[in-house]
Write a structure and sequence with these properties.
Blueprint lengths: L6 H4 L7 E5 L4 H11 L6 E5 L2 E6 L2 H21 L3 E3 L5 E3 L4 E3 L3 E5 L8 E6 L7 H8 L3 E6 L2 E7 L13 E4 L10 H9 L3 H14 L2
Parallel strand pairs: 8-9
Antiparallel strand pairs: 1-3, 2-3, 2-6, 4-7, 5-6, 7-8, 9-10, 10-11
Length: 210
């Protein structure tokens, strides 16, 4: 059996995106692994109800999350939107048995302990319900970039009833945190294989809409 303290040396980095899942992990073991790996760790850890998921991101994964972040920075600057980037900060709620690291995350308007927006790039499917995880962490809006499209969710219920299948989040077509952001333009520019051309097209699109 792989011991948690040996996990970082056991992960095979020749796989472009390797995902490992461990069950029956205690909160203290999760926090110990976080401390052992340190802030410079290349791995992303998600914890929910004793299930620990460890991801070694691929280049495709990291490219996607960086390009989304670059485009949002252009949006914030062009629209004079107050924002506070939190990046992949580890979010923890031990009393709710939830901990996670989004690919990108932001507080909008004012700085907070928990981001308003969390963004994840999905290349390979995981075993942890990400929306349930973010509900417990208290994130208002979650975006997933998956299969070359954006999927947006806004939290409606603390105790899921109407939106039970999506952990209390409602699928939305337009961000409620950034209501003036053209999601079609953003999607087109993320899909553009040339990052510089995408950034220029995105800026032009924002300027043309004002």
């Amino acid at each position: 059996m792989v011991l948690l303290r040996d996990l970082s040396s056991q992960l095979a980095l020749d796989d472009p995106e390797e995902r490992r899942v461990l069950s029956y992990v205690s909160w203290s073991q999760y926090e110990t692994l976080l401390a052992d790996l340190g802030e410079a760790s290349p791995y992303r850890l998600q914890f929910l109800d004793g299930v620990l998921e460890i991801l070694a991101p691929s280049r495709r994964h990291e490219s996607g999350k960086t390009r989304i972040g670059d485009l949002l920075l252009i949006y914030f600057l062009e629209t004079d939107t107050e924002y506070f980037p939190m990046g992949s900060t580890t979010l923890r709620q031990p009393e709710r048995q939830a901990g996670g690291e989004p690919d990108e995350s932001y507080c909008i308007g004012t700085d907070k302990d928990i981001p308003d927006l969390a963004i994840e790039v999905i290349v390979t499917s995981g075993s942890i319900n990400r929306l349930e995880l973010y509900r417990r962490l208290g994130v208002r809006e979650v975006w997933f970039w998956q299969n070359d499209r954006l999927l947006l969710y806004h939290r409606r219920e603390e105790t899921p009833t109407q939106f039970a299948l999506t952990a209390g989040y409602e699928p939305i077509a337009q961000s409620e945190l950034l209501p003036d952001l053209d999601m079609g333009l953003l999607t087109d520019c993320i899909q553009n294989p040339n990052p510089l051309a995408a950034a220029k097209a995105f800026r032009r699109g924002i300027q043309a809409s004002r």
